[in-house]
Amino acid sequence: MEWILEKSWREKLKGEMDKRYYRELVDKVQEEYENETCYPPEDKIFNAFNLCPFDKVKVVIMGQDPYFNPGQAMGLSFSVPEGVQLPPSLQNIYKEIAADLGTAIHQSGDLTRWAEQGVLLLNATLTVRAHVANSHQRLGWGTFTDAAIKALSDGRENLVFMLWGVFARSKKALIDQQRHCVIESVHPSRRSANRGGWFGQHQFSRCNAYLTACGAQPIEW
User: Fold this and answer.
1) CA angle, 75 as apex, 70 and 81 as ends, to 5°?
2) pLDDT digit string, tens, across residues 2-38
3) I need a surface site. Which of 25, 136, 144, 218 has the fewest CB within 10 A?
4) From CA 7, how far away is CA 49, in angstroms rounded?
5) Are 80 and 87 in contact (CB under 8 A)?
6) Residue 78 contacts by C-beta under 8 Å, 6 or more apart in sequence?
């Protein structure tokens, strides 16, 4: 099937999509989907971009790889469809939001509501083979999603980049910190969060304070 990328992103990333590596990436990924079980569904590969046009982005939350178990991946980092059990990382995200903002813990893991407010929930790798973590990491997705981060850094002002864990924090080199706010912490996974550095960082209130100071509507987390 044809992958549909939202118009504003298609314009910003056209240079990447015309490159040889991207055409080879598409061929490899389509072959994987034809011959293996892969996630997310093909019509959700660009879900993060399609729900959050370039000029609407306020916040970027970086993930590494889609969920690789059936029924979980939906093309948004950390998000799972309505009715699916919350993964440990998302449970910890919700706990920290509740503690930081004094709100109730959400029961739904579908983060579409964040994306529609301007939160780009971007995985560095947009596809994965079932039950095999990082199986598509070397196909070329990282080059493409790095270009998206760089486009935002260069083309927008006053965004918040929330970088969780060593992998996400490695993307800081792509971001102009004079123009944007970077909030870093450990990863919210059960293992990392329980070692300290996730809870009590007030990341979500800090994010909203920055947006408000820059004249933008805060996120309803």
Assistant:
1) 55
2) 689 999 999 999 999 999 999 999 999 999 999 999 9
3) 218
4) 10
5) yes
6) 61, 63, 87, 89, 90, 93, 111, 121, 188
Q: Decide if pLDDT at 163 tops 70.
A: yes
Catalytic residue among 27, 65, 110, 176: 65
pLDDT mean over 105-113: 96
What sign has the CA pseudo-torsion 163, 207, 152, 24? positive
What is the SS3 assignment for the chain? CCCCCCHHHHHHCHHHHCCHHHHHHHHHHHHHHHHCCEECCHHHCCHHHHHCCHHHCCEEEEECCCCCCCCCCCCCCCCCCCCCCCCHHHHHHHHHHHHHHCCCCCCCCCCHHHHCCCEEEEECCCCEECCECCCCCCCCHHHHHHHHHHHHHHHCCCCEEEEEHHHHHHHHHHCCCCCCEEEEECCCCHHHHHCCCCCCCCHHHHHHHHHHHCCCCCCCC
Q: Which pLDDT band, with edges at 50, 70 and 90, does 1 fall under?
A: low
pTM, two decimals, is: 0.96
CA angle 209, 211, 213 (to 5 degrees): 65
Q: Is 207 exposed, middle or buried (0-12, 13-18, 19+ CB in 10 A)?
A: buried
Write down the pLDDT at residue 2. 66
Tell me if residue 65 is catalytic: yes
